[in-house]
Specification:
Blueprint (H helix, E strand, L loop, with lengths): L5 E10 L2 E11 L4 E5 L6 H9 L3 E9 L2 E2 L5 H7 L1 E4 L11 H6 L9 H7 L1 H5 L10 H13 L5 E5 L7 H16 L4 E5 L3 H7 L2 E6 L2 E7 H5 L2 H8 L37
Length: 268
């Protein structure tokens, strides 16, 4: 069996004395794709932050291509081939699109031409400053900038959050192309459960910081009763049509609808 690109073995992590994740075990092979689902505040973002090195790991190990990465600082993990796309996008507002893309670029198959082919809108806006872009364009820029570092594994934190349906369609098409054509490996944290399942091979579901389900994404996508039981909500359309929320609540009424519950969030 081929060695995993990324592996977590019994990881417990959090912030100081606060434990957010416990007993996390997972692996992602080269070219693999993993969806991470769960309600707000269960530890999804903390999982990505832990992989990037921004939390306190008190038990277990994180391995990258077989090498122990547990105590390696974030910038060394990025150099090793981890690419992180934060939900906040964090584009440089005073730099142009092209400057944002090239500021941290490293040699590899992803260059300006390939990023512009993936996101034609960025080619059209290449001279525009970051703060002049729409939310969707900023998300495209954030993904493109991460690709320009030529990572072996991308960590995407809710890339579809708060975007118009047409932009969601563009981004999901780009992610599908990254996987199908370029063989990109990625971990996707996403509230749009059914979209996340359709984009990935494998899924795990978190509850109270622990894994309560893992298996093929297609199997969970074809079992809506189990999906509803595990995640507590089903999103049938990115624009909000057909959404069902627990206990009759609206999306806006859910705690952490815009800001996630505190244990699942940190400023690195």
């Amino acid at each position: 069996m081929a060695e995993a690109l990324l592996a977590l073995d019994g990881v417990r992590a959090g912030y100081g004395d606060a434990v957010v994740l416990d007993g996390i075990a997972l692996d992602v092979p080269a070219g693999g794709s993993l969806a991470v689902l769960g309600r707000n505040g269960v530890g999804k973002t903390t999982l990505l932050l832990t992989i990037m090195g921004y939390t306190d790991v008190t038990r277990g190990a994180i391995r990258w291509r077989g090498r122990d990465l547990t105590r390696v600082p974030p910038h060394r993990r990025a150099l090793a081939g981890l690419g992180w796309i934060a939900q906040e996008r964090e584009v440089f507002p005073s730099l142009s699109v092209e400057e944002n893309l090239t500021v941290a670029a490293r040699p590899g198959r992803w260059d300006l031409g390939r990023v512009y082919a993936l996101f034609p809108r960025l080619a059209e806006r290449r001279g525009s400053r970051g703060h002049h872009l729409s939310g969707g364009e900023q998300q495209m820029l954030a993904i493109g900038r991460a690709l320009m570092t030529n990572p072996s594994l991308l960590l995407l934190d809710e890339p579809l959050e708060g975007l118009a349906p047409i932009v969601v369609e563009e981004l999901t098409a780009a992610i599908r192309r990254m996987r199908a054509v370029d063989g990109a490996a990625f971990i996707l944290v996403e509230q749009h459960a059914e979209l996340a399942l359709s984009l990935t091979e494998t899924t795990l579901v978190l509850e109270r910081g622990s894994i309560v389900h893992r298996g093929p994404s297609r199997a969970l996508l074809e079992d809506p009763a189990t999906l509803d039981r595990l995640v507590g909500l089903r999103i049938n359309a990115p624009g909000g049509q057909g959404m069902g929320w627990p206990r009759g609540q609206s999306r806006q009424g859910l705690p952490g609808a815009r800001l996630r519950d505190q244990p699942d969030r940190a400023d690195p």
